[in-house]
Design goal:
248 residues, mainly alpha, 9 helices, 2 strands, globular
Length: 248
């Protein structure tokens, strides 16, 4: 099977040349101190300090936000964007199919998310052990990290294609998209928010189902239905942007 040249280009730039290392460095430089401070700095009232009990929750929330945000930026090709060959050139001059481009971009996103989870695993497993969270909760959190990063990251891929030659426009878009969705999902219905849902799950809290049209909708069903719909719309936008950019 012939290797995908777009995927090979991304691996070469991000991994072999080390251009993606700053993203992982920023991730650890933020996550590790917050985890340390959560554990070792008591609150003003030592009687209500629950640093050890909340360590895994705090660490998971920070890891989630960082993974989604940095994943969006990587998908948006904000790191060394000048090193990447234009997609139109891949398709027209090198004969790469649109489906190959799409698979390569999604594959690179999954690879980066997997690496984020890998580098954070020692810290989060340690936090889970201190908080007595259990391996099931830890690995469920890893699964949620991957799911959310892919769901939001697909919009970064769409932005990178739609505004391929306008870096500032797509930078503004991904930041507005990230913060707007976090805020609007919390305002519309809090369990739709990924941070709130993660805390509900880790805290094992029972949330009353939402009643709509006489039907009771369990919170997990609504939450994942919303995010699967968001991912599907992002995938459609990504495919449309690819065809728009590469079609003569």
């Amino acid at each position: 099977m012939k290797p995908n040249p777009v995927l090979r280009e991304g691996i070469q730039i991000y991994l072999w040349e080390g251009q993606g290392i700053p993203a992982y460095g920023h991730f650890l430089l933020i996550l590790a101190p917050i985890e340390f401070l959560t554990l070792f700095l008591p609150s003003l009232d030592p009687q209500v300090w629950t640093g050890a009990a909340n360590l895994f929750k705090v660490s998971s929330v920070v890891a989630l936000l960082l993974m989604v945000y940095l994943g969006l930026r990587i998908a948006n090709r904000e790191f060394v964007p000048w090193r990447f060959l234009p997609l139109r050139q891949w398709v027209r001059e090198h004969g790469v199919r649109i489906s190959q481009v799409a698979l390569a971009q999604v594959g690179l996103l999954c690879l980066h998310v997997g690496l984020f989870i890998l580098v954070s695993a020692p810290l989060l497993i340690w936090a889970g052990a201190i908080s007595r969270a259990g391996l099931v909760a830890v690995f469920a959190a890893f699964g949620l990290f991957f799911f959310y990063s892919l769901t939001y990251g697909i919009w970064g891929l769409a932005a990178a294609v739609f505004w391929e030659r306008r870096l500032e426009s797509r930078q503004v878009f991904v930041r507005c998209f990230f913060f707007a969705l976090l805020i609007l999902s919390a305002l519309l219905y809090l369990p739709l928010n990924p941070v709130a849902f993660l805390l509900y799950y880790l805290g094992r809290k029972e949330v009353a189902p939402l009643v709509l049209g006489g039907w009771q909708w369990p919170v997990p069903v609504l939450h994942f239905l919303f995010h699967f719909s968001l991912f599907g719309l992002g995938l459609l936008a990504f495919r449309w942007a690819l065809r728009r950019e590469t079609t003569p």
